[in-house]
Write a structure and sequence with these properties.
By secondary structure, this protein is of the alpha/beta class. Helices cover about 25% and strands about 30% of the residues. It folds into two domains: about 80 residues, Alpha-Beta Plaits (2-Layer Sandwich); about 190 residues, Vaccinia Virus protein VP39 (Rossmann fold, 3-Layer(aba) Sandwich), CATH 3.40.50. Strands 8, 9, 10, 11, 12, 13, 14 and 15 form an eight-stranded mixed β-sheet that branches. It has a four-stranded antiparallel β-sheet with strand order 2-3-1-4, with helices on one face. It has a three-stranded mixed β-sheet with strand order 5-6-7. The radius of gyration is 20 Å and the shape is globular. It starts with a strand and ends in a 6-residue tail after the last strand. The structure holds S-adenosylmethionine. Its EC number is 2.1.1.-. Methylates ribosomal protein L11.
Length: about 290
């Protein structure tokens, strides 16, 4: 039987242009765009962001390539067979996500000592924990675990469910996780089951504004534009006096996101690489 063929257009762009280039790819008919840089599982070049856009046919890929800025060095790559889909697995090895929490994939157990072990299979969902935006939130969950001990944590944009699971092993009583991508819900549920945490995690596609409010900690690792758009419903889910952690924010986007949550007090803005997280506290009603 003949093997399936996959067509990609690959470009190397200035990191500041990566977002616009991604949008352009979708306008040109891409069915998906993978970004590679120094922070991603599959590394890109040092000073550039490599975008790998998939197309349904060779002709669509060639048409798109011809529309692109030649300075981006657009080129076609063709892959035969679908073993490449799992190539990222080679890069996912056991690692310490934050002090005391080691994450490992199902295909490689961890031989060392760890206070908490989480087995994680992200599948097609975002959330191995290797990305800075995830580890910034995990570290905040670790640092501020006393503020939600025994209470309820909400994870908005849960992907693999990794942050809700970290909150649970660090002492949350229960967690709620939501994502607007229906495909990741089963992944997050399976990850909860792998770790025996399913009884304490509810995960579904409920829009954040429809969730009953009053969480002891809310975390959201989504992109800056979404965090700004969802500022009102996300803010309303945090109990007065409790913490909100926002991630997925580039250093250059910090002030814009901060302004959207102007009612909150700043606790800290830890950074890793080009990424920054905002740790904010909802003031008590009387000030
Ligand atoms: C960067 S991933 C984060 C995954 C995981 N929480 C982590 O920290 O590794 C962002 C996730 O947010 C989801 N997302 C994007 N917009 C959303 C929205 N408006 N409501 C809920 N989830 C959203 C995406 O589907 C994706 O799974």
């Amino acid at each position: 039987m003949s093997q399936p063929r996959f067509y990609f257009v690959v470009v190397d762009v200035d990191p500041l242009l990566a977002e616009d280039a991604g949008v352009l790819f979708f306008e040109l008919g891409a069915t998906g765009v993978e970004e590679r840089d120094q922070t991603t599982l599959v590394k890109g070049l040092v000073d550039k962001t490599t975008l790998v856009a998939s197309f349904s046919s060779q002709q669509e890929a060639e048409t798109a390539r011809d529309e692109l800025d030649p300075a981006w060095l657009p080129r076609i790559e063709e892959l035969v067979g679908d073993a490449w889909r799992d190539a990222w697995k080679e890069h996912f090895r056991p690692f310490e996500l934050c002090p005391g929490v080691v994450v490992h994939p199902p295909w490689e157990k961890y031989a060392g000592q760890a206070e908490h072990l989480l087995e994680l299979e992200p599948g097609r969902a975002f959330g191995t924990g290797l990305h800075e935006t995830t580890s910034l939130v995990a570290t905040a969950l670790q640092t501020h675990r006393a503020t939600y001990a025994g209470g309820q944590v909400l994870d908005v944009g849960c992907g693999s469910g990794i942050l809700a699971l970290v909150a649970l092993v660090l002492g949350a009583g229960n967690a709620r996780a939501v994502d607007n991508d229906a495909d990741v819900i089963g992944v997050a549920q399976e990850n909860a089951e792998r770790n025996g945490l399913q009884a304490r995690l509810d995960v579904d596609t409920t829009p954040v504004g429809d969730i009953a409010p009053e969480f002891d900690m809310v975390v959201a690792n989504i992109e800056a534009d979404v965090l700004v758009t969802l500022a009102a419903p996300i803010s309303a889910r945090v109990k007065p006096g409790k913490l909100l952690v926002l991630s997925g924010v580039l250093g250059t986007q910090h002030d814009r996101v901060r302004a959207a949550y102007a009612d909150f007090e700043s606790v800290a803005s830890p950074a890793r690489g080009e990424w920054v997280a905002l740790i904010l506290r909802r003031p008590h009603a009387n000030g």
